[in-house]
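Appendix B, Record 12. Input sequence as logged:
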Amino acid sequence: MLFGTPVFILGFLPVALAGAILAAWRRGRRASLCWVLAASLVFYGWWSPVFVLLLVGSILVNYGLASKVRSGPAGRWWLIAGLAANLGVLGLFKYAAFLAALFTSGTNADRIILPLGISFFTFQQVMFLVDTSRGVISAVPLLEYACFVAFFPHLVAGPLVRPSHIIPQLNEFAPHVAWRRRVAEGIEIFVLGLAKKLVLADGFGRLADPGFAAAARLDPISMIEAWVALLAYALQIYFDFSGYSDMAIGLAGMFGISFPLNFNSPYKARNVSEFWQRWNMTLSQFLRDYLYIPLGGNRRGEARRVINLMVTMLLGGLWHGAALRFVLWGGCHGVFLIVHGWFKRLGFRMPSVMAYGLTLLCVVLAWVPFRAPSFAAAVEVYRGLFGFNGIALPDIFLRMLPWCGHFVRAVAVLPYLGDARTLSLPQAVLLLLLGWAIVLGLPQLHGMTRRRRSVALTASLAFSVQALFFAPYARPFLYFQF
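Logged structural output:
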């Protein structure tokens, strides 16, 4: 079930929210939590009911393991067993085909269906086991633990919420208290996030898809087509993930649960380190606190810091998908972070405008292997970006700019640009200018003034209703595949 569909907005959400409020009002906190847990399992099972058994089994096993982790001297061994079990299940479903492709010529592993959100609910439980071992989390009732893992706003695509942040809120769960104010505030944030997804992200996705589809077929794409596809995809994933994060925050807020900020204008970062402090913030914090620092962080010399950083970023890339192109994407960011650290230690500073531009260029170019379906397709996109396939323009524009004919090839239309009409080029340019003006010129949603948010809400509601009911199909969130 997708957040941006009529069945969720007009069916599931009102029933789930009203039931939680009424149960809390008439029967108390635990009855309300039972309702939320049941609704979350229905939400998860909507796609494939059989995987509800996997989710419930994972919750029960990890809850039992947590009690063993607290049991004394043997707790460390139980923690290791728990981590191995969680990562083993994740590896079976998500990486079996990838590993088999690396080491064998034939396999049936690619027939394994990936359960929705398995990366997210596995990492949630890894955090719980580790925090229990560290003494950050004490004994938690099973109902609260199950709601922490299965709460539907973050179940399938994050954010990765810390147990120490969410479980105390579940212990005080009271969705019926001041529910009118909370629901109104949550709806406002949800609708703004919905507009980012349905209007902006999906719109730029339609602009990005033809170029990357051509690269997947190894068709040569010209420089303009390649740059339009890449810049559009950079905006698509930005608004898609930002929209999902806002929708999750808004949904949780309707139930009286506060989620951490997960997205903070990352394209405004002045360096790659700052980018990762702004992009998928909860995942970045997870990788730092549960992988990079336990590996030794930067406490054991420069060589060890470089190794730890590369291991963290390579695994972070692999977490996004079982393919070498995701490893390449993570490796690119690992190199960026290492180089940035070296320049920072040398005391090198560049002008702010140059720092912004260079960071944005590195981040955008690194999106190519992330989006392209294969290495060969990524290479084809890069060939287009750097002009190896030439520059082409519709002949109508060349007639207006005859001096460009010395280095630009005339074509009837640009075949891999939007809907391949003559006017696709000016339309694409105007849309990209609008998107990048929003990204770079406006504050992020949670930093907006009340007046700006009201204006944005009015426009968002009108466009979102149109997209919700008249779009030909619902595009899933990009992070659902991870």
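Residues 272 and 340 are 7 Å apart (CA to CA).
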